[in-house]
Write a structure and sequence with these properties.
It is a single chain. By secondary structure, this protein is an alpha/beta fold. The protein has two domains: about 35 residues; about 170 residues, Aromatic compound dioxygenase (Protocatechuate 3,4-Dioxygenase, subunit A), CATH 2.60.130. Helix content is about 15%, strand content about 30%. The strands form two sheets. Strands 1, 4, 5, 7, 8 and 9 form a six-stranded mixed beta sheet that branches. Strand 7 and strand 8 form a beta hairpin. The longest helix is centred in the first third of the chain and has 28 residues. The termini are far apart.
């Protein structure tokens, strides 16, 4: 008995398999996208908060070049649930900033948003008390002096909501203008750090309330 399959039958099966894999692929992509929801209006590069890959995130992290760069800073805080009282565990903070020349340095092999944000970046994940800490150095303003020095921050909540917050700024920065500070800051904090000397560190703090002043949060 001839068990060989007719070419037309084989072609038909192959077409059906291609269609099936295509449908599965679309469903998988859709599921991945549905796990995350951007809230609080458009945000260029906020997806970088998901670029930590397989690394295990902790409540404390140190950004690149910390050891060899001054002035060194330590920033801590507590993230609260929308009630402003209950600590929020498992919230991811994505942070990046310029170097001491005011640029976002790259090494040439960056992938994703690292090609624009540079390699001075990191992720922290709040602990059971909602607390986070990161060590880095004080960045410089852009070479043209167009903006005050700042550290960008994006949040990713455990339920998949993600959004940007006002950058960390420095109270004593002459380029910082009060008129540019929001009266209804996202996350309930304008991000201005009043650094205090502690050994070889400059220490500041910032608490955050999830969803506070975030458009379309609910």
């Amino acid at each position: 008995m001839n068990t060989l399959m007719h070419p037309r039958q084989l072609l038909h099966i192959m077409k059906n398999l291609v269609i099936l894999f295509f449908i599965i692929g679309i469903q998988a992509c859709g599921q991945t996208q549905n796990n995350y929801k951007l809230v609080g209006n458009a945000c260029e590069g906020c997806e970088a908060v998901m670029e930590f890959g397989e690394r295990k995130l902790n409540a404390v992290d140190t950004l690149p070049l910390f050891e060899q760069t001054n002035p060194k800073i330590k920033v801590s805080g507590t993230v609260y649930k929308p009630d402003g009282i209950t600590p929020a565990e498992g919230v991811i903070l994505y942070l990046y900033h310029t170097n001491r020349d005011g640029v976002y340095p790259t090494q040439g092999n960056e992938k994703g948003w690292a090609s624009k944000h540079g390699y001075i970046r990191g992720w922290v994940k709040t602990d059971q008390n909602g607390q986070y800490t990161f060590y880095t150095f004080r960045p410089a303003s852009y070479p043209n002096g167009s903006e005050a020095a700042h550290i960008h921050i994006t949040l990713l909540e455990p339920d998949g909501k993600y959004y940007w917050l006002e950058s960390y700024l420095f109270h004593d920065d002459p380029l910082r203008k009060d008129r540019h500070i929001s009266k209804t800051p996202r996350g309930g904090s304008n991000g201005i750090l009043k650094l205090k000397k502690d050994g070889n560190l400059l220490v500041g703090s910032r608490d955050i309330i999830l969803g506070k002043n975030i458009p379309n949060y609910y």
